[in-house]
Structures are given as structure tokens and as C-alpha cells.
Amino acid sequence: MQSPLLAHTAGTGTDRFGLQNPQLLRVVLDGTSEVLARSGAMVAHVGKIAFAGWTPPTGNRRDRRREPDVLDLMRCSGTGTAYLANLAQHLHVLPLNGEKLVVTNTYVLALDASLDWHAVAVENGDRIAGVGSRAVEFSGTGSLVLMTSGRPLVLPVEPGRYVYGDADAVVGWSSGLEVQLQAQTSNTEAWRRRGTATEGWELSFTGQGYVIVQPSELLPPQRVPRG
């Protein structure tokens, strides 16, 4: 059979994280370390790879009666290649080497198990569709893989200059920025998921760093409620 479809064969890269295409992540496991990935993100794998549930180490667990896990992850271990994706969202591999990055938790696809992270509260964020009640600050050495709906925009933030992003569109930002959640309207409709025809909620950023924004003000596809 001859078809352009059959030209989309698997890549041969050896990096831990690589993009098979803009919407499909290739993860190479060598049997010596684990990768953490969004639960249910595996679409294919080659070799002896195990996928198991993950819970925080005992010392880092929170009281589950008071708040849920900030990330819903699974452990990927073994030897071979795993392919991860989530509803054809665009994927981005970010190597961290001591830097810190805050990300809205719904946009995390995978990460090196060696990375450290902790929850960061966003004031009133539980009422805003895209922000959620928690963001996550990542640090350490390793790679983090993010998802966006379309190609993102990265805006620099400089001292004395405010940068604003729609609360439904902001994916992440540099750790250390001052972040404030504010309404663009006094209309009570702003508290609803999509608000009115006017702009509703936005995040303002000041300091030194950058903000990552996706070209969509909708909920991430994996969180669209069923009718």
C-alpha cells in the first residue's frame, strides 16, 4: 500500500523526551529511572514498560480529606519507548536546570521524576476556569512537558511594566513574579465560567520574567464538562 499516511513512522531519537510531532511526545526509558506522566496519556508503547498509579512520598502527602492531589500522575518505568498525548494538544519540552517555573496544573503532560514541585495557591482561582484553585511551582534539574491549545505566546515581564493575561488563557509564568487576580468588570457574570460578552477575569504580572499564554480562552479539552 502506498499512502502519505504510512510515512508517519516512529522517530529514532535517544533523548528522554522528544517530539514525534508537535502533538505527540516520545519518551525513551532505559530501565534506570522513571518518568511521571498525566494519568491516561499513553497512546502507544514499544518494549517492556509498566504504567502504575503514583502517590506522593509519605513525607509530602497532604490530608486528602482537605484537598485533592495537585497533579494526577502515573509512573512510567521499564525499557522501551512510550508515546504520550492528550487530545492532540500542542506539546512543549522545557529543560529545567535550577530554574523555577509556575504552571497551571491542568497543562502538565509529563516530567522527570527527579523534579521537585509544590502547590501554589491562586487567590480566588477556584472560581476561574483556566486557573483552577492551584498552580504548581517546579524546580530542580530535569525536563517538564507542557500542553497548550495551539501555539503559545511568551510575553516578557520587566520591572515597572504590567503584563496582563486572560485567566482562561494563562498557562504558566516565571517563579518570583508578583501575580494578582482581578476582574475587568463589576458585573456578577464575571464569576461564571465564561462571563459575559465583555472580558471577565485576568491575571496581572509584575517583576522580572515571562508569562506563557495559549491562543485559547476555553477550558483545556480534558476538563470540558459533559452535558
UniProtKB/TrEMBL annotation:
InterPro entries: AIM24, AIM24_sf, Trp_RNA-bd_attenuator-like_dom. It comes from the Bacteria. This is AIM24 family protein.
